[in-house]
Amino acid sequence: MLYLFSTFAQAQQFLFDSHLHYGGEDVKQFTPKQIIKIFDRNHIKYAVVSSTPNQGTESLYAYAPNRIIPFLGLYQTLGDKRDWMYDESVVARVEEALNSGIYRGLGELHIFAKDRKSPVLRRIVEIASERNLMLQVHGDAEILDEIFSLAPNVTILWAHLGTRPEPEFLRGVLTKYPQNLFIDTSVRDKQLLESGELTDDWKKLFIDYQDQFTVAVDTFSVNRWNTFDLVVQDIRSWLADLPDEVVRKLAYDNAYKLFFNEKVD
Predict the structure, then answer these.
(1) pTM of the full structure
(2) Of 167, 173, 193, 230, which residue is the least packed, with the fewest Cβ within 10 Å?
(3) What are the structural domains of the chain?
């Protein structure tokens, strides 16, 4: 695959979105065909998608199986975010849903340090390890510690640059987990562009750990689908502050290698 990085070509750079949702109100307002049109005009070649309930993900995957990477959500309603880790019925539902064979990961899992000893979390991590599934985690660094202590070889996609999106803090976490931790940048674009461009600290972090970051929009609400194009513009804006090779990795190559287990041509 040939990449050129003129101003025009930068806008044509394929993106692999590593964190999207398509459920509930999204399904009512956007058909799968409309979602793929959004992807096409923004040059989103592949996307990791989960939903509450999971029927949204399944319908989008059925429409475009060559472009959607399905993750299995654990929630029946969005209210389940608060206490899923203490609902033992989650485990049985997850194991049954995985029988479909389409899912590549579990999540997005909302969980924080105070709940890290949850027996439900422990079983979910075991399932991920047993079935070679990734975990998409919305939580603090203590949750990463807990998961890796239970299953050192599991792969974690850590959402939103974590809960402390600070270059030096993230550097410490990445130094601790150099192999199986990947971090998405979703919903942090305005923060990254707070001064109009990436600060030197952010640039250095992305360059030093260029193999472990992925870009994402995160359609956590219907409005994010309505403003999808603007969010992508922000992503491309801060990416443009990085060297070409780093742009390629964050925008596309890292996620591609992660999910297809092969180098980008």
Answers:
(1) 0.94
(2) 230
(3) 7-260 (3.20.20.140)
